[in-house]
Design a protein that fits this description.
With about 425 residues, the chain is mostly helical. The protein contains 18 helices and two strands. A two-stranded antiparallel sheet has the order 1-2. Helix 10 runs antiparallel to helix 11.
Length: about 425
């Protein structure tokens, strides 16, 4: 048997122990390089090539043992901590909505939420077992197509509750609300390419930042602007450019956002920002919602008013103020436990980022943290008057089919990145 065939046979035996075939090419190349280096060293020491090959193979060890070790090192892993917390959040959301369904006698509420969860679960599983790194190839296309559809929605969309919806037959879509998620995924891929090629610059970053920000500002959906700006800043920081680039970009963003607030903000939006600091300045107007939310929380006994209790003083209990309703029926202890659950989930996200070595994966996770936890904590803090009231959906708890599917897709992407964290470094090294 020739030396090359002996090495190929050894590598084949090693790969035979590794069930994840995606890493086979990278491991094959890594072992071939290792053998080449070892054989060259022994040849320089005076050994013939066949002797050098035999010694190199013997030093490597039993191929079955090596293969089993590599299988353990590079097999996909699930982040069960995130899965369990997400399952708990979904269960809490269903129980809360079912209580509201009893209070308001709205069967459609719980049925549509269950439909969203089922569809979202299918989407999550589909994304979980897909190679997310392939998405990077379509980053620029995703960015510009999202920009075009967003512009079309603003110009030709169907107005609902003061917001333009993308009108697709009888099924309008909140594309303005979805667009920050799409832009973040697209920009994560664009930034990772810049970082890999050392072409990151403040001018290019701002050129990508400005068009979506202006369009979202025209759409008068404040929270979409907040999500987009927060996600973009997170990506810039996670890309780790030089400090002057980061500081310069942040200065430009602050100036840009300040200018848009000055030019485009409506009086009622500014009033909402002012009166949340002291809602009792206008208790029957701009401060009414905050006061009623605080009263709902304060009126809950230690264990709440009970399952199925009715709360008629707040609007949008199924979405914007569902946390207030949760505390009202279950009590502040459950509300605090829910908040702690969110903190633990965020820590699991941060832990996952540290374990992921792939640049694109870590950028995506950084953006996902902002996209998920900004609405999560804003919805909670809004209930107790710590941030201005705004239209926001509490992830996995608030009612909304599209938002539920979107949040499940986000979790599928997060779990996919973590699951493949031990595959990416080898692929990249190859």
């Amino acid at each position: 048997m020739s030396e090359n065939k002996r090495i190929a046979h050894y590598i084949k035996e090693v790969c035979g122990q590794i069930k994840n075939k995606e890493v086979h090419p990278a491991i094959t190349l890594e072992l071939e390089n290792h053998f080449a280096e070892k054989i060259e060293d022994y040849r320089e020491a005076g050994y013939r090539e066949d002797e050098a090959t035999r010694i190199a193979i013997a030093e490597m060890g039993d191929p079955v043992d090596v293969g089993r070790h590599l299988h353990q090192a590079h097999k996909p892993r699930m982040e069960w901590g995130i899965v369990s917390i997400v399952g708990t959040l979904i269960a809490i959301g269903l129980v809360t909505l079912y209580s509201l369904h009893i209070a308001q006698d709205s069967k459609n509420l719980i049925e549509r939420q269950l439909f969203g969860i089922v569809i979202g679960t299918v989407v999550l599983v589909g994304i979980l077992f897909w190679d997310y790194s392939k998405l990077k190839l379509f980053s620029e296309a995703l960015y510009f197509n999202t920009l075009i559809i967003l512009l079309y929605t603003l110009l030709e969309g169907k107005p609902m509750n003061g917001i333009q919806y993308l009108d697709i037959g009888s099924f309008p879509i909140d594309f303005i609300g979805i667009s920050p998620f799409l832009f973040t995924v697209a920009l994560a891929g664009i930034f990772s390419k810049w970082k890999e090629n050392n072409r990151y610059s403040i001018v290019k970053a701002f050129a990508y930042f400005l068009p979506p920000c202006l369009l979202l500002a025209f759409g008068e959906y404040e929270f979409a602007v907040l999500l987009y700006v927060g996600g973009f800043i997170a990506l810039v920081i996670a890309a780790k450019p030089t400090k002057p680039v980061v500081l310069g970009f942040l200065a430009m963003v602050i100036a840009c956002v300040g200018g848009m607030v000055y030019l485009f903000a409506k009086p009622y939006q500014l009033d909402r920002l002012i009166y949340y600091l002291n809602p009792y300045l206008d208790p029957d107007g701009n401060g009414y919602i905050i006061i009623q939310s605080l009263k709902a929380v304060e009126s809950a006994s230690l264990w709440g008013q009970g399952f199925g209790a009715s709360l008629d003083t707040l609007p949008a209990l199924e979405s914007d103020f569902i946390f207030a309703y949760m505390v009202y029926i279950f009590g502040p202890i459950v509300g605090m436990a829910f908040f702690i659950l969110g903190v633990v989930l965020m820590l699991r996200f941060l832990h996952a980022i540290k374990r992921v070595k792939d640049v694109y994966g870590s950028l995506l996770l950084s953006g996902m943290i902002v996209l998920f936890f900004t609405p999560f904590f804003w919805s909670i803090f809004m209930t107790v008057g710590l941030v201005p009231p705004i239209s926001v959906n509490l992830p996995f708890v608030g009612f909304g089919t599209v938002h539920t599917v979107l949040q499940m897709a986000l979790m599928g992407l997060v779990l996919n990145i973590y699951r493949r964290k031990d595959i990416q470094p080898l692929t990249k090294a190859s």
